């Protein structure tokens, strides 16, 4: 297969990104009550963020940059589906936009929110009202709309287009392609959790399925890009 090294690198990026996501997510869940903390008030969340110290800030910084591993993964998927270049070009664009949106959403924690936490600790009652409004506004704009909704929809579009493209590639099994399509549709539905609580269960399921699917996709890119054996 041409460009196999790029495809393998993409697969490794998906696997590494998924494993790192699980580690960081688990740490934040244990130390910061993540993701439930996202719905908390500034009076509860900002002091807790500050109490976490430099370690908490560093973990959030790592978490903010983890989505960047999706870009080399998407490039690997692009080269793994040469029969669907127009479709995979759109998929690559969607993955890039989704990655940037997710990074912007997560970067508020080790940057703006970290600064707000410091200001909140020294602020009086009136100033805290203003800081609370800023905190919620940033969560709504950068968190809910940019990072979660736009980022997840664009990532779902990438998975959907990649699954559809794999159906036209003889080296990939049909179950893999259809699994990608089904997961992408679930991911799109789950992205609307900020609109209606009716899909919250699907969103919670997606948090578990995302790293699993990234590992499956990464392994598939590595395994099915192997050169065909003579006579096979």
Count of alpha and pi helical runs: 9
Order of helices and strands: HHHHHHHHH
Helix percent reads over 70%
Quaternary state reads single chain
How far is the N terminus from the C terminus? 15 Å
Task: Report the major sheet.
Answer: none
* DSSP E strands, number: 0
Q: What's the mean pLDDT score?
A: 92
Short description:
By secondary structure, this protein is mainly alpha-helical. The protein has helices at residues 4-32, 42-51, 53-65, 70-80, 85-107, 112-122, 125-166, 174-190, 200-223. The two termini are 15 Å apart.
SSE topology sketch:
Elements: H1 4-32, H2 42-51, H3 53-65, H4 70-80, H5 85-107, H6 112-122, H7 125-166, H8 174-190, H9 200-223
Helix pairs in contact: 1-3, 1-4, 1-9, 2-6, 3-5, 4-5, 5-7, 6-7, 7-8, 8-9
Write up this protein:
The protein has helices at 4-32, 42-51, 53-65, 70-80, 85-107, 112-122, 125-166, 174-190, 200-223. Helices cover 78% and strands 0% of the residues. It has nine helices and no strands. The longest helix has 42 residues, at 125-166. With 232 residues, it is mainly alpha-helical. It is elongated and about 70 Å long. The model has no long low-confidence stretch (mean pLDDT 92).
Observed structural traits:
232 residues, mainly alpha, 0% strand
